[in-house]
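Hello,

I think I submitted the ME8 job twice by accident. Can you confirm which output corresponds to this input? Input:
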Amino acid sequence: MQERKPFYITTPIYYPSGKFHIGTAYTTVAADALKRYKLLQGYDAYMLTGLDEHGQKIETVAREKGKEPQQYVDEMADEAKRLWKTMDINYDDFIRTTEERHMKVVQEIFDYFMDTGDIYKGEYEGLYCTPCETFFTETQLVDGKCPDCGREVKPMKEEAYFFNMKKYAKKLLEYYDSHPDFVKPDYRKTEMINNFIKPGLEDLCVSRTSFDWGVKVRKDPKHVVYVWLDALTNYITALGYKSDDDHLFQKYWPASVQIVGKDIARFHLIYWPIFLMALGLEPPKTIMVHNWIMMKDGKMSKSKGNVVYPELLINRYGLDATKYFLLKALPVSQDGLFTPEEFVERFNIDLCNDLGNLVNRTVGMINKYYGGNVPKYNSDKNEQDKDLEKVTINQKNEFVNKMNELQFSNALGEIWGIISRCNKYIDETTPWILAKEENKEKLDSVMYHLVQSIRFVAVLLQPFMPETAESIFEQLGLTKSEYKTWNSLDEYHMELGNVTVIEVGKPLFVRLDKDAEIEYIKDEMKK
Ligand code: ME8
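Support: Only one job matched these inputs. Its output is below.
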C-alpha cells in the first residue's frame, strides 16, 4: 500500500481568558475543515490545537476570579475541550503550555539561544500593554494607545533578555522571496515587509521579571520566558521536538498549513520563522492569515453586549449550519460580518432553498416517477445534460484550486455553483412535463444526471458539513463508501449499480421564520 503523505495543520493556541465566541472559533473550524478535506484526499492529516496558558493577562484573570492560575487554566482547558467536542472538531493533540512536555523544551530552546548568542541580556525600557503582553515604541502607538487592542499602555523598565532579530531580517526577506507559498494570502507578506521589516526590525525582548506565571529561564530563574516565545514553540514541542520520542516531529515537521488570525500575523510571519531558522529548522510550508468576523458595531465584546457564542447557533440551528455560516462569512481580502439578519438569510436561501429543496425535489421525483429506483445512464438525452456535466466538473476543479489557496468561503461558493446549476437544470428540463408526455428516455436522463451532480455536491460538502453530506448520501441511496470517496469524483458517470432513494425525503434544513429568529438571536445576544 502506498504510504500516506503527512499533512500537519495547526491552529493558534488560545488564551483561556474567557469563553470562546464565534470569531475565535473560526480558526479552529477552518482547520478542522481543512483536515477533513486532506483526509478525504488520502493524506495522513494531523491537527494540533491547544491553550496558551501563561502570562500576566491569564494570571490577572485567574486572581480576579479568586483562583490560583493553575486551577483556573485547568478548568478552562476542560471547557475548551468540551466546546471542541460539541463542534465535532477532529483534532489529534491538544497542547497546553503549562504541561511539562512543553515547558521543559521551552527552557532548552532558551538555553540553546543563550549558548548560540542569539539571546543576550540587556535592559528594556518601553511602553507596555498588559493584555497583549507586548512592549511598544512611541511611534508604534495609535492615538497613544496599544496598536493591537486599543487599550492604555504604561511605561516600564526592566532587565531583560533580547533575541537578536536584526541578524535574521535579511534572511527572512530572502526566505519570503524564495518561498512564494509561505504566506497566504500574499498581501499579508507585503504588509509585514512594509510595516515591520523595511523600517528596521527591532530585537525582541524575550523575558520578563514583573511576574512569574510562566516558564522560568533555567539559568536565571527570576526571569520568565516571554509568553510569545513560550507560545510559538508549542507547534514543535507538541510533536516531541527535543524530547526522547520525536517520531511525530520527524514525520510532520515542517507544518503544511498553520492557520492564524490577522491580529497575530506579525508573530507568525516574522518571529516564528526567525526562531525556527535560529534553531536550524525549516519554517512551515504555509501560514494562512484570515480576517476577522466583525459585528455591525465593530469587534465582539462583552461590554458592548454583542457577543455571539457558538452554542447559541448550534443549539438552535445545528452544527452544520453554524459551520457553514462561519466558513462562508469570511472573504479573503476583508473582514466578514455577522448579523442575525444575514445568518437567517443564508440559512433560508443557501441551505433551505438552494441545497435542501434540490435534494428534496430530486428524491420526491424519483419516488413519484420511478418508485424510488434511480434510472441508469444511456447517453445524454437532453440538450442541457452536457452542460450540467461540464459545470459540475469545472466547479469541482475550481473548488480544488480554491482549497489549494485556503479560500474556504470561495470553495463553498464553487459547491453552490453546482447546486444552482442543478436547480436551473430542473427548471430548464421540466421533468413534470416530460412525465406527462411520457418521454421516458429524457426523464431517465434528467433524474440520473441530478443524482450524479448531487453526489458531487455531497462528496465536496463532507469536510465542511459532514452530517448534511451523510444525510444526502442516505437519502439518495448512495450509502456504499465507494460513492463518497475523493477518487469517485474522477468520473462523472461513475457506475452506480442499483440505487434506490429513501421513500420519503427528509428536509435537510427547515425554513426559519425570519423575523422571529432574528428577534431570538438578538435577545440571546443580550444575555
Ligand atoms: O492570539 N474573528 O490567542 P487568542 C476571527 N494565544 N478570528 C478571531 C476573532 C474574530 N472576531 N477573534 C479572535 C492568541 N480570533 C494567542 C495565540 S499562537 C502561538 C498564540 C482569532 O485566544 C485570533 O485571530 O487571542 C486567533 O487566531 C485565535 O482567534 C485565538 O486568539
